[in-house]
């Protein structure tokens, strides 16, 4: 009697946060002739480990390269634009804002499909708090952005003449007529604005998915247009650290670390608040706030 073909599916884990891969076995090849039992070849353990590491390290490497290019290009443009004068509203501000915004645009377009194109620890931390990425990936992204920023600013310091260093490598500052409280509020609001746009642009449930990198880049541009005269516009803690580290110890930049905590806590808190607000109130198809109102308010009446 002819033996009928049957197929059996066996699933192996594939990477971190990736879909499982299905492998099909044909019974004419996988049955042992002596006992007619199914023989399934075990996959080597190192293959699973390799795929898992690749799912973590490849995006982290993209964040490292992207952060290095961002700091080198955007901060370099800010240095050359501001040479010989302080940040002032006008052509200088527009040029610096465009450099930061367009740099984020092209880099998000380049590595967004690999790592999401965070390039900003405030964004990464918010995604971790919202449980959209794992804690391990958050830590790896932070290290990648931190090291990448230092690499980028290091090469910028290497290729620029010493006379340019008086611009302090685009170090963030607090306007002399304003307090750290004013600076904190500014960084909070501007990063809130950026993160709100990021959440909206990356909302997979909405119908319009076009121009996502451009929308984020334009948000960075708009934030810099208002933030440069006030704080130098950080909205990115690891970028601020890289600039301050390069300017540290240089006689032309005695205040490289002044109020530096503002450029960490302001952006991080602003991003987290915006992330929760969008996730609970505006996420297409979600509207978690409606469920909370229904559960804790309407049912009490």
Structural class: mainly alpha
Helicity range: 55-70%
Mean pLDDT: 81
CATH superfamily (homologous) name of the largest domain: Glycerol uptake facilitator protein
CATH architectural type of the largest domain = Up-down Bundle
Number of domains: 2
* Strand ordering within the main sheet: 1-2
Number of strands: 2
Low-confidence stretches: 1-49
Proportion of strand residues: under 5%
Annotation keywords:
4% strand; Glycerol uptake facilitator protein; 301 residues; two-stranded antiparallel ribbon; globular; single chain; 10 helices; mainly alpha
Please explain how this structure is put together.
There is one protein chain. Strand 1 (about 5-10) and strand 2 (about 20-25) form a beta hairpin. This protein has 10 helices and 2 strands; from the N terminus they run ββαααααααααα. It has helices at about 25-30, 45-80, 90-115, 120-130, 135-160, 180-200, 210-230, 235-245, 260-280, 290-295, and strands at about 5-10, 20-25. Helices cover about 60% and strands about 5% of the residues. The termini are far apart. The longest helix is centred in the first third of the chain and has 38 residues, at about 45-80. A two-stranded antiparallel sheet has the order 1-2. Residues about 1-50 have low confidence and may be disordered. Helix 3 packs across helix 7 (about 210-230) and helix 4 crosses helix 9 (about 260-280). The chain is globular. It has 2 domains: about 5-45, no CATH class; about 55-290, Glycerol uptake facilitator protein (Up-down Bundle). It is mainly alpha-helical.
């Amino acid at each position: 009697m002819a033996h009928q073909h049957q197929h059996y599916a066996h699933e192996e884990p594939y990477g971190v946060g990736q879909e499982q891969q299905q492998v099909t076995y044909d019974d004419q090849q996988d049955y042992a002739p002596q006992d007619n039992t199914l023989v399934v070849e075990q996959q080597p353990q190192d293959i699973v480990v390799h795929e898992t590491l690749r799912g973590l390290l490849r995006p982290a490497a993209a964040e490292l390269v992207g952060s290095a290019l961002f700091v080198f290009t955007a901060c370099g443009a800010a240095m050359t634009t501001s040479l010989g004068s302080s940040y002032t509203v006008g052509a200088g501000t527009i040029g610096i804002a465009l450099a930061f915004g367009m740099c984020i645009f092209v880099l998000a377009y380049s590595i967004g499909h690999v790592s999401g194109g965070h390039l900003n620890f405030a964004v990464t931390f918010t995604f971790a708090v919202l449980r959209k990425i794992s804690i391990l990936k958050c830590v790896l992204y932070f290290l990648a952005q931190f090291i990448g920023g230092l690499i980028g600013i290091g090469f910028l310091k290497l290729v620029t003449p010493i006379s340019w260093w008086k611009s302090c490598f685009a170090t963030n500052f607090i306007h002399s007529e304003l307090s750290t409280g004013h600076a904190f509020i500014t960084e909070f609001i501007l990063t809130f604005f950026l993160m709100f746009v990021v959440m909206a642009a990356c909302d997979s449930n909405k119908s319009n998915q076009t121009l996502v990198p451009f929308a984020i880049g334009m948000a960075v541009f708009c934030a810099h247009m208002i933030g440069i005269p006030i704080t130098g516009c950080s909205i990115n803690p690891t970028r601020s650290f890289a600039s301050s580290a390069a300017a540290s110890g240089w006689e032309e930049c005695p205040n490289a670390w002044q109020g530096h905590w503002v450029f960490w806590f302001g952006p991080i808190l602003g991003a987290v608040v915006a992330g929760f607000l969008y996730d609970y109130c505006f996420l297409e198809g979600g509207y978690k706030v409606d469920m909370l109102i229904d559960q804790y308010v309407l049912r009490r009446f």
